[in-house]
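Minutes, structural biology subgroup

Action item carried over from last meeting: produce the structure token record for T-complex protein 1 subunit delta (Medicago truncatula). EB confirmed the sequence was re-checked against the source entry. Recorded below for completeness.
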Amino acid sequence: MAATAAPHRSSKTESYTDNKRKDDVRQSNIIAARSVANAVRTSLGPKGMDKMISTSSNEVIITNDGATILNKMQVLQPAAKMLVELSKSQDSAAGDGTTTVVVIAGALLEKCLLLLSHGIHPTVISDSLHKASVKAVDVLTAMAVPVELTDRDSLVKSASTSLNSKVVSQYSSLLAPIAVDSVLSVIDPARPEMVDLRDVKIVKKLGGTVDDTELVKGLVFDKKVSHAAGGPTRMENAKIAVIQFQISPPKTDIEQSIVVSDYSQMDRILKEERSYILGMIKKIKATGCNVLLIQKSILRDAVTDLSLHYLAKAKILVIKDVERDEIEFITKTLNCLPIANIEHFRAEKLGYADLVEELSLGDGKIVKISGIKDMGKTTTVLVRGSNLLVLDEAERSLHDALCVVRCLVAKRFLIAGGGAPEIELSRQLGAWAKVLHGMEGYCIRAFAEALEVVPYTLAENAGLNPIAIVTELRNRHAKGEINTGINVRKGQITNILEENVVQPLLVSTSAITLATECVRMILKIDDIVTVR
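Output recorded by EB:
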């Protein structure tokens, strides 16, 4: 037992005596965090299981994306919540490997529990884990293969690997090239290593299958053109204005009612309304504008039936209820300026496109703007699906693939998948641990053993014999075959690089560093103080 460890057996820094309370808090934290890791462990890899999540609002989600599963789980224990945050951190840093990072953290915590039971001080374990993670990043970098952005095939292979573990894996040959082309089209030449995924808009439309998903060079709105008073639904040589003001009669600033005593006064009010709206539409028409995108208004109606009637007569195509947060993307794509007041309505603030048309798609309609002149560095992906569950999962999977390509743009190195880097890390760190003295070497050996959880879980989820597979992997890596990993499709061990199972270096390095950071933080907690 830790409490009865004889002080003369080792130096003070290496023996650890603690009171029961601190031990219990640390142990309960580790057990709670491990249970969260075990919950997502079965969904790791291409043959991983999917989870069906039923939310409190009776919404059903089917996914095997670690970040989504953990995000929807109602975790109450503070240390277990840290693993949910860890998954979110990996999602924002790399976009992929959200399940891997939690599984690695769970395995490290299991080893830490063993080390603590042997009487090793948490600070010693924490410092050793930090050293091991720094060394692990160096080993991974040495294994990595450089990639150029001009090498489209390598980028597509990497995106495909990310998609292969998803529910929509059978469509990876379609979605991977879309993800690559999307990211490459939004790269700014001035800052080639920076990619803002907000420049890639994903529009979901129910109907059809995932096969019908397409990359649109232009803009797509999941809404129909305003048909009031028989306005146009197709416009060639479009001059497009994005307006943030209302084409409707003004209201008073304060809530009040106006009493009209006779019909002549009522007629006068209606006449004033008509002339006010007509005056606005004449100013709009004078600039040559023939397509209006109207921002959704909270205070009063953005357009009334009367204004729509006059706009239809002026042969102006109207798309109303454009969301406020879409305005920035629309103006960047159309290379135009949003217009906040009718007095500022000028021809130089308009965007130009060859065609704006309404198309029937599935059971609804969409508006498509194509042939945009001087188009900004943005792109739109129209995702289709036969039901909402598939549609949502296709969007999540596409987002992961986009993140993987973004990682490659930021750090242009590829690494083998299929558990190959983890086994190689385990081997090299194990060899390094033998050279080190004292508790440090013991802790680093535990870190090395913990990394074997990834290939072990991959084999287990694929229905293979995990012990035989991991033993054979160790044997192959000891012979110098560093890119040998588990091919779960064939159910055997092969050179994973030749099988095109690759992932960005950033995904692996951030998974190791973030998992280690999280485990070190949990280790350092020796008490939970509840403030009411």
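Discussion: The two ends are 36 Å apart (CA to CA).
Next step: EB to file the record with the rest of the batch.
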